[in-house]
Amino acid sequence: MNKTLIIIQREFMTRVGKKSFILLTVLMPFIFAALIFVPVWLAGIKDGEQKTVVVVDKTGRYAGLFRDDASYRFVPAAAVTPDLRSDTSEVEAVIAITADLATHPAAVAIYSRTEVPSDLSSLAENVLSEQVRRDKLAAYNVQGLERIIDDVQGAAVDVRTVKWDETGRETASDTDLATVAGLLFTMLIYFFVLAYGGMVMQSVMEEKTNRIVELMVSSVKPFQLMMGKIVGVALVGFVQLIIWAGMVAAILGVCWHLFGLDPATAQEGAALTAANPAMTEAATDGSGEMMAALMNLPFAELGIMFVLYFVGGYLLYASFFAAVGASINAQEDSSQFIMPTTVVMIFGLYAGIYGAENPDGPLAFWSSMFPLTSPIVMMVRIPFSVPLWQELLSLALLYGTALLFVWLSGKIYRVGILMYGKKPTFKEMAKWLRYK
Amino acid sequence: METFLSARHIVKRYAGHTALNDVGIDVPRGKIFGLLGPNGAGKTTLIRIINRITAPDAGEVLFDGRPLAAEDVMRIGYLPEERGLYKKMKVGEQAIYLARLKGLTHAEAKRRLTEWFERFDIMPWWDKKLEELSKGMQQKVQFIITVLHEPPLLIFDEPFSGFDPVNAERLKQEILRLKDRGHTVIFSTHNMASVEEICDEIALIDHAQVVLSGNVSEVKSRFRTGLYELTCTGPRLESEAGSYEVTAAHQVAGVDHYRLRKADALTNSELVALLAGRVEVRAFSELLPSMNDIFLKTVGGASAAPQQQKP
After folding, report:
1. For residue A79, what is the enclosing H or E element?
2. Which of A142, A197, A247, B245 could bridge A321 with an S-S bond, Cβ 3.0-4.6 Å?
3. Which residues of A touch B14 (CB under 8 A)?
4. CA atoms of B76 and B147, how far apart (whole Å)
């Protein structure tokens, strides 16, 4: 059996067999969901108590506009009395309006002994701005103004996005959905490259500090050891992805079942919307429409590209991490190498996020060609349809660079793993490059 | 005597100093070769060069008559001084893994390993993680891993460090057994007592150079002092010009103990014959210097000389 295969096998089995791997793989989707939903949920919780806000309105025109809600009770008052300022006051805040706001827009202020809650100040701003706008419009003496205003306020446009496929047929599309899908894949690649690249570095360093590497290189070529490690860890990543994909599919299946939706009808919906736009209007079910758009995402292309960019990006970064792990003697030394890498990757992530708004703009284009960021950025662009030549060029650049990195890292790796405490000079490195 | 491995004119320099300066050794086939020297003399560097872990700046290594090639590492078993195995991996699993990397099949590795584990009475450790074992136990496991693929050349760097006397003796017997089965052994140490017990040939490295080498008994006779110990009964011996000189004498319970210095002209047999004619010989032995004495004499003398290599 090939020695590299033996190493791959070990790297894979020791990781997948760990309890922590199984636990983390199962829990991770829930942790992610919690990370997204818990802050939203927490922010949504009111502290329950209705607070009293005193409205001191010198003009008498605005006090009546404030309506009590779950958070605030508004009490009109004639003037700001000293006991409102005192510590013992039950009053949360005082809104003081001193003049006609249409002519003196700055004649209002909120006083409080603590920081004024932002929801209160925005509430006051909305209520007062609305009234001032009405007052100003009223000043033009237009007939039937009230009706006009009510009509105008109800007006809103919902732009339906439709994509033509190759034959010019209409298909349902959803820009937001495409953005979310792209960002999801981008985040996955970013997360995997960093996490698994880090794992490679950790493992290389462990072998070095364990001193087992001296025994290992008396059996196998350092390059075999490095590649075995990189490939073994990558396989662990794939297994994790497949498990997650399975879990997501299961969860979606349960959701569809619960909400009375199933993929078959969604597909039907997609076909129907394409055939007859009028049907879309008739279909009041928004989620059905979204399902239709979801079905029309280029799944095959996304899947293939994800795998290609995942492999290329991982190979590039993991080989770099392996070389770093081999060169350093202690965990503490790693930061000076990891910092610049992380900066490049975070740049890629931001380029991806902004690129989602303008998928064919220069930032998105160039960063999806540059091999260090292309795996992250290109995934955002693919749901928006990228010309084939760009995909091919980007992939060619990525794989070319990745192979160069693997080759260089292999050279550095076999020098590094045996250098204890001593910093190798370039002359020594050159000698090692020639050594077979 | 056939040479199995020979290193010629090896030079290895590091940034600040020279680790090996024109070092040459010849390891005979099927013998135990002791690589001696004080700490930092360059022993480990030489071993690493033989294992192809480091490249020499100059010089060559001949393995079995031809230049050492990359595949030859499969025919070497190496026990590094800095012991290291995977801490989190189970003992049996990791031994099989390392054996497979040395070219054994899974089944063969398992069979041989079971044999070794049973011989060392350590079968219960098979499924334990390495970190659960004591240091001495880890050493045993590492020794087994080193020899499992039965390579023609075995290199042990300080094999006895970390072993208690009982296990050190056990290990010594194992090394001698390996020699009997035709393995060539390079054995690096600064424990001189073990050298005398097991080594056939030695090379003493000091300050990056071979300062002494050869067959152990030949080296010893090179350092012979001409002193003998004689236990006898009978008439009192006096110094005799041209044959021997009595340097010390005492009597215990009617038995005389002498220390004699032999004249260069006489052979040992002639001296014994001469003495046998005068007294009743109970014991007669030449006082050969121990390897420890030789080591101290050679290294001590060298270190008194001006040091050129080290910065």
Report:
1. none
2. A197
3. 422
4. 9
ipTM of the complex: 0.75
Residue of chain B whose alpha carbon sits nearest to that of A435: B55
Single out the residue of A315, A291, A292 nearest to residue A409, CA to CA.
A315
CB contact under 8 A, B83 and A6: no
Closest residue in B to A204 (Cα) is B86
Q: pTM of the predicted model, to two decimals?
A: 0.72
Cβ distance of A7 and B54 shorter than 8 Å = no
Residues of B whose CB is below 8 A from A3 = 101
- The DSSP output letter for A220 is S
A-chain residue closest to B68, CA distance: A436
The strand order across the sheet containing B76-79 reads B76-79, B153-157, B184-189, B32-36, B201-206, B209-215
Phi, psi dihedral angles at A182 (to 5 degrees): -60, -45
Cβ–Cβ gap B73/A219 under 8 Å: yes
Q: For residue B64, give Cα distances in angstroms to B33, B72, B74, B79.
A: 15, 10, 13, 20
Would you call B39 an interface residue with chain A, using a CB distance cutoff of 8 Å? no
> Does the beta-carbon distance from A7 to B101 stay under 8 Å?
yes
What is the DSSP annotation of A120-177?
HHHHHHHHHHHHHHHHHHHTT--TTHHHHHHHHHH----PPPEEE-TTS-EEE--HHH
Mutate which: A203, A210, A218, vs B, most B CBs within 10 A: A218
Query: From CA B210, how far away is CA B232, in angstroms rounded?
Result: 42
For residue A143, the one-letter residue type is Q
Residue A223, both tokens? 């390059």
Domains of chain A: 51-149 (3.40.190.10), 163-434 (no CATH)
Element (H, E) at A368: none
Best-predicted range by mean pLDDT among A63-72, A142-151, B173-182?
A: B173-182
Mean per-residue pLDDT of chain B: 85
Residues (pLDDT < 70) of chain B are 1, 15-16, 301-311
Q: How far apart are the first and last CA of chain B?
A: 39
Note the pLDDT tens digit of each residue in B180-194: 999 999 989 877 878
Domains and CATH numbers, chain B: 3-221 (3.40.50.300), 225-286 (no CATH)
* A361 alpha-carbon distance from chain centroid: 20
Q: Is B58 on the interface with A (CB under 8 A)?
A: no
pLDDT band per the 50, 70, 90 thresholds, residue A97: confident
CB contact under 8 A, A215 and B15: no
Helices (H), B11-164: 43-50, 91-101, 106-119, 135-147
| Residue in B84, B89, B101 nearest the CB of A6 | B101
